Structures
1.
Amino acid sequence: MGDALARFKQLLSGAGSNSAEASCELLLAQLEPALARCFRLCAIPHQFDTALLKALLPESSDTQVQGYYESLSRLALVNIRGDARALHDTARSYLFGKWLEQNSQEFREASARLQVFFDSQLAGKEGLDQIEALRQRMFHWIGADQPGGIAEFERLCRLARNANRLAGCASAIALVHEYDLILTENSRGLLAYHEAKLAADRNDCKRAAEILHTLLANRSVSEQVHMKAHNRLGLVYLAERQWDDAIAALQSAEKLAVKNGNVPELPLILNDMAVAYSKKGMRERSQALLDRSIKMAEKENDLLCLARDYNTLGTLHRSHNEHREAIAAYEKSLAYLAQANDHFRRAAVYNNLGDEYSDLADWTKSLQFFELSLQISKEAADTIGQARTLTNLMRVYWNSDRPSEAIAAGQLAANYFETLRDDYNAGNAMLRLARLYRSEKRRDAALETYGRAIELYQKAGARSDAANVEEERAALVRPPGLPWWAWAAIVMISAILVIFAILMIVVGASR
Amino acid sequence: MTPLDRRLTEFVDRTAQMKRFCQILENRAKPIIFVSGDGGSGKSSLLARMIHECSLQKIAKTRIEWTETRNPDYLAIMRGVRDDLGAGHFSSFTSLVNAYYDDRVKLDLSVNSTGNIKVAAGANFEGSTVGQISGVVVRDCMIVVPRRDLGVSENERMLRLTSTFLSDLAVLTSATPVVTFFDAVEKMEDETRKWMWGEFMAAVRDNRIPNIICVHCGRTKPDVDRDTRLAMEDTELGPLGLADIEEYLQKRNVVCSAPREMATLILAYSKGHPIDVASAVDMFEQTQENLAQKSDG
């Protein structure tokens, strides 16, 4: 035993430090070579069981595989995850880094076998198990064939994004980053594009813009990716209300789209640019872009794009008080949505039409369209959509001499917004409701509702809105104008002046 | 003996942490426990020991773990908790999940005037009628892509599913205590972390779910507000001492002529970091085996 301790002492002193790398190498040096190889291979997947070990070591028998599995399970650097095992994070990270440094044939072949293994695991799996198997297949696909694996990564990202699972996109991105050491410039660009999209989806516009600018400086990625990056950057700037930057980015996207043969994204790029120009007040430019977008969408028979173009056109006309043209455009948008069998998007267009007729004080038509919008939002269980329409309906009911319905709509809208923690819009609905109470001369209800609006604005961090409502509320508590003593003084002074004037007249007449 | 059982028997030190955990199980002084420490500091071992303690005390428990490839989001966490604690207690939640994800289900998803959700109105479940939903186990369709015929925003879906899940959980925990374990939480995605602390733990902190203790294990402590900090027990795992290493050598039945010398050697090498201590012992055992094979050969 003394020999073992002496040898052990010698080993430790030779190690120099107790870093994860040193610990790992020391242990591997002590293991039987076949088991050490198995340990190194186990750093390629994130976890393993006997079935996966068989895929990693196709030349080994079942008994050998079972033996390796049991021997590995006894090591402290191997974690127990239910029925599976995983190398400890530090050990795996070190050994996986080694595989990437070498990027050997052995690594690529092992990755290919694992890709096939997880492909076979997909059958019969559903839910989270299926997602996990897909991610693992994608991960090893990159190790075996980078372009193919990255294409699969993009597909998984899109799937997760369409299902509103941003955490799913983030997980896929983190997995691809494990390959940073060997990613080609093109793969890096594609990865960066999806990271930027994720940041934009998380409303982190600053980070999204940073990543996109870095991506645009990468000349190794294709023009198609650059076009997408410019387009995304334009959308980020639109969200930030930076119209000039948005226009510049979208123009670059347009140039590349035209150069690459009018890609399918072009009509949408033109539509976004039209929105930016409209916001900047450049009406002709906006309309010209919409006309171009409409022509292209007509050529491709892209019904949804046409519906979007006409909706944007309607809003453009509305902002210039061209009511007839606005209504015609919205109606065209509705017709295209009907052709495309898109029921739910019609709610937004009905809402716009309701607004338009409100501007024209045609309360009957306005009510008709808002009610249609409300009906669709209800069918779609879209509570926020219902809350927005109910807020608009308050004005219509009020002007149609239906005050109790206006108040009920306002209460429901505020309640929906509050339930969904949209405190700012709940505050807006409460404020409108308070004004209705005030007009109805229901002072106590108005005061209480103003108070709720202030609370909601404060909760939403909208201090200036809260302060404005505070002033409005104070005016109701203390009516505007001079205090009673000032009025008394004015009356007294006026009386004195009148008496003085009369006296002067009397004195003048007596002379 | 399974590898997990073996590791449980080799568990050393962390006496203070286990004692405090048992106290909290008894007096429920704090509903949230956060175990923090570097990778390899023994968090998962401590968690395994705590889970074992719950088994011994016959306390209902659930465990969710994050890995690089399995990264549960808010819905997966709620589904996991439900499946561990018994789907029968979460019928309202499951019905709402099905309503959002399975387009074969026709349910009334309207929000009533107090902000609660009417889930079951109009629903038709096998062997049950509407109004008796709490007594029926509803089967989850386990679909992860929301249905396309609804216009429900992700925020609304999250809030309403969470609210229903928490109501179901509160009914369960008011009858029986529950401990939830969350392991490797540093691997959780940002959205999930926000939900965990902003929704789930906020309800636990505010005692909206009675009789629950939530144990989190992670490398870094979360940045939480003052109220949550007050409701949270912080446990930071430090290095092992010489006595702990000696005890560990004993528990692993390491045969050595000079155990004190060996423990000192390991302490100097590992600086008491548990994973390095255990790994050094593995190395020593392997050295012994290699020497034995050499002398045999």
2.
Amino acid sequence: MRLLAEWYDFRDLGNTIGALLDRIRDWGAPDWVPYVASGVIGAVAILLWTVLSVLAFIWIERRVVALMQNRIGPNRVGPNGLLQPVADALKLLLKEAITTRDADRILFWAAPVLIFIPTMVIFAVIPFGRGMVLADLNVGVLFLIAIGSTNTLAVFLAGWSSNNKYALLGAMRTVAMLISYEIIQVLALLGVVLFAGSMRLGDIVDWQRDMDVWLLFIQPLALLAYIISGAVEINRSPMDISEAESEIVAGYHTEYGGIKFGFFYQAEYLAGFGIAAIITSLYLGGWTAWGLEEWVPGWLIFLGKLYLVFFLYIWSRGTLPRLRIDQLMAFAWKYLLPLSLLNVVVAGGEVLVWREADVPSEVALPVIGAINAVLAVALVVGWASTLGHLRRERRPARAILTQEVGAILYEKAAPGPLRRGSGQA
Amino acid sequence: MEDAGSIAAFWVLAVITVGSALMVAAARNLIHAVVALIVSFLGVAGLYVTLSADFLAVTQVLIYAGAVSVLILFAIVLTPTAARDNADSFLRLPALLLAVVVAFTIGLAALETDWRIADRGGFEETASAIGEALLDKYVLPFEIASVLLLAAMIGAIVLVRPESASVEE
């Protein structure tokens, strides 16, 4: 059945709440009452949703990654291991929250809280559906970047206050990484803002609905850059360098245990949902889906897209190996940054021509989309080959075995007599 | 600034801003001082919000709380020979005197000046107004600032360049 946009149509939560607030206003309550009421309702709803989603996705992620790695995954607590996240959460709550002797006590306690706040606040400006946004700021996109940048600080404080060299090393790595990729994030979002002509997230979603096109098709390069820098911000493989277990134990939260570690864990998941929500709103049309939002509640469409994007990150975690820190930094500064800069310049030129020449959007947008798609592929491949990453490495068909020469030698380096004529030289 | 909410917000934010600014000077540990400084920056951002300067507020968080503070933290951590605490100084008393005099002067100027109040209301959206001003009326200072930043960046690269690389060329 079509959505009715009436208060009793409970499928569309935004309308119901909106009607409730109007009713309060009609009763003659002062202005702050509906304001506070909407704030409380929105905050509680977001908090509940994030906690439930995190619990669900801990199970989903562990099972999916287990499937990818040919394991079974958690299957003991509850049917199919469904209650495993609950058990984990209880365990974290009940464990002793240890503070090491030489730690800086105040900052050691403050860091988990400080990292949790910005990740929650991000959801305040995300439009979950029609009229379902807690604070529709007119500088929403900038707000997202600003709030995301304060994460850096909490990570640094966590690493520094632990008084542990691995923690400090992890923190320094993370800070360097986050700062580098923040620039790419800003440039990627700039392309979106250029086209939509507004920094309000609701306006950007509306623009995509009015133009009948998702920004994914207009700014593919920006989306790619944003997905990669998003993976850095939420510490997901292949960018999980800040807590590379094999190198620096667990990075900045090495010394944290119990519920303090739980905060970091939860914040990391929430940041993941935050990045997925931003990608959904800015690049995938938010709660709209080419007319489907008339039939299905917008928030369901939004959540569906969000979970799909998040699944992409789970997938990458299950498949891709970790990069080295120098590779990651070089990738940001030498590869992604020039590409993103070029993308912004091209997008600006396109918008300028579109506005000045007064081309109707039905003509202009497909052309711009086609140009940008071709440009994205050409730039990604072309710049990679310029930097020399596309050269096919010459590996022999068979490595010469250790027993024969005392070390693994590939044929190119092997001396003449040992070359047994296997494969081409 | 007429309803009770704005006034309450102003006082809370003012106490946070000034209190944490005092903490910066009083804290013995330099890292604690930096954290207090960040809280002070956030308080100033809050004050901007009460003045409905939303763009400025968000930029304050982005530049000062997000970037400048990290720069200061790096400066502290990467200078191992410098003391990590707010060291004692024999200039304590003169500094206090100077601070009091400066605060008195600024306070007096703020209270005594006959501020002109614009009869036009606030901007509906400050972001677009600032953008238009920067790229229209103030485009020359804006461009000069970007050239200055570029020069600083090149200077930093030249400073950290290893000697051998320049010899080879």
3.
Amino acid sequence: MILAGTTAFFALRTPGPSGGAVTYVIGVEIAISGPYASDGPLRRDGAFLAIDQMNAQLVAAGSPIRFERSHVDSKGTAADAISGFEGLIAAGIKVVVGPLSSTEVGAIMPLANSNRVVAISPSSTAPRLALDDYVFRVAPNDAFQARALATLLKSQGISKVAVMARDDDYGRGIANLTESIFQASPYNGQVQKVLYATSTTDYSPDVGVLSTKVQAFGAGADTAVLLVAFEDDGIAILNLARTDASLGAVRWFGSESVKRPKFLDATTPAEIKDFLVARNMTGFFPSPARNPVVTKFEQDYQAAFSRAPSPYAYYSYDAAMVAMLSILRAGKYDGAAVKAILPSVGQTYIGASGQKVFDQYGDYAAADYRIWHTTFGGTAYAFTEVGTWFYASGLIAWD
Amino acid sequence: MPRGGESAADLLFLFTSIATIFGIYTILAISLNLEFGYAGQPNLGKVFFYSVGAYVAGILAANVVTALAGFQGDLFGAAAAQARFLYATANPGMILGLFVAALILGAVAGGAFGYLASFPALRLRGDFLAIVLIAVGEVSRVFVYTYDPLAGGAIGIVGVPNPFVWVSPLVPDMAVTAPRLLYAAVVLGIAALCFLYAERLSKAPFGRLLKAVRDDELVADVLGKHTRRVKGTVLVLGSGMAAVAGVLYAFYAQSVVAGDYIPQVTFLVLAMVLLGGAANHRGAIVGVLALTLFDRFTQPPILTALGIYWSAPVDLNYVRYIAIGLLLILVLMFRPEGLLPERPVGTPTPKPGLRSRRMRARTSRDRWFRRHLLVRSRPFSRPWQRRGECPEAARKLYWRSWLRSL
């Protein structure tokens, strides 16, 4: 109790940031617990880095303006997203980076619109939520990735795909879109889906079903598995799959989420990483070809947090940057003014995840996807980029 | 610290949020208190009955309002939500009628599911009943989550309009807050009604019967009480109340998402009841208030708005979770009966002339017990014995010793 009291005494202090400067608060509603316990902190740090960098630039320019951050954990659920968003509104915050998932974004949408608070989601991708409102989304929707996947699968001679996906808005979205696009002309492929519960920790029944479906397809060169998973569930599934003869005989593809660092970091068993390399796990990630902005972001992120950014950290960085630039461009801290100016700010902004051009609904208008596959260079495992899928042409160009 | 533009804290908005959530959880806590605190039925499937109300409200809004608005397209998309909102703003009578209909339908549906749930309750006790009810809640959640056409699947139903949204154009200065204030008042009113009803019920003979079932079901059975019917009745009542809370939450959150109705909600309500004091409705309300205020006032944005800044290297969000667990552990260690412990039932004894038929029957039965069965080992020494009365506790003790002697 004494320890807790002492900690609280030193941790809580008033007043806050000092100074004479005009302060605008950026709300950050990014889940760091629940399903986002692993990746959420990395995404949150992307937004924090943007705010710190912007403040450093404002100091250097002698500007009296400062940005302050106020982070609340939405826990990845709709109810907590609402509760957190209400807290941000009650605190007088007009611009929020987050929430992450489409479920959360759908839940806070009525609040954002009625209170005229701009919310910029770094990773919501469900097409169902497209509306001209106060919610902006900086990540491309699932339909882009499904189109890219279908093109890639066909280019690799795959005609039968067993999709193993999370049974949530993200996994189901990609699985359903891949199914509808890949089964239609000109791909005319076959798709079987296995949707697994995100709350479970035992994936052996689901992996067993996946194996059965692959056997039914015939575990040959024209059959593949598409994995749509996050870190913990993905690694557990791969660990089971590597011991299955059928699953170990076919090619594996992954969604953008499989490119997260944990799949190849030191804590993941070498057998799983070897399996990924042996099955030539290949996937996409929506990002521009490497450029100086991306490199600078990665260096700064590594320097600030002593770890590499996860894929969606690029998006939360850009969401925060676009939010702050819009406030500066609007010249006032007002949701309606920020909403009006934000699309034009995005059009002229090229960030860590590319140019932020928005469509009429405030969603990311288009994205090229980089293609990566897992490699082992003798000492370390890596996601090596090997090509780009261009949304304009629908074609793949290999590096 | 000077801030830009209109960034002052909106305490009225915060108040509406706290008041509404407090009202909704008060209804849930009272319903669980009736079942668990009074009747000893561990309804750990509480969230299921809560979700029934929310789905009734959501499905009703999604289908009826969208059809009335003349919207064609994805029922669960953002465009449909926008159409429902515009329709509700322009048609106050319809949205208020829909709200009342949802409350009634929700309560009936919740009660009906509670009746169905009472069947295992009649055969199972304690932990087994709790596990069955948790499973019922999880199975239903997974069904709704995976079956898109029913309630929008993983993303759920977005756009269940606030029943007072039509007030906004009438008071432009309070366009956002006025509907929320009215709604909070309605929720608190319904919570107060639930409280009064539960209090009366608990102090009535039915309340004593609930405690008898909780304390010793066998004795209550032997005394001729229909314990199965009692357990069924309390589950129907508690489930109906929980469903009303679900309806209120759906209209408050303006969305219904299957992923929200997870067992943690039940455990949160249980924690509120245990913190405040089981078998004491006032205690349950104190528990709800304590945890609601703790949750809201430890949110980092609220602390910042109040001028309190967290500068420790640990994320405050994590500290909140630790603190709430610590609080519960401390209360259970040092005050296991809760902040407001259970008190004896305060029903006044009816005057002899006003005794009901049931009371007369009970008195004559007591007399018969004493005359034929009671083996007195010592002279009457307690005041009630000298008065020739036989209160519940004494009857129970008597029957327990009689059963042991068999």
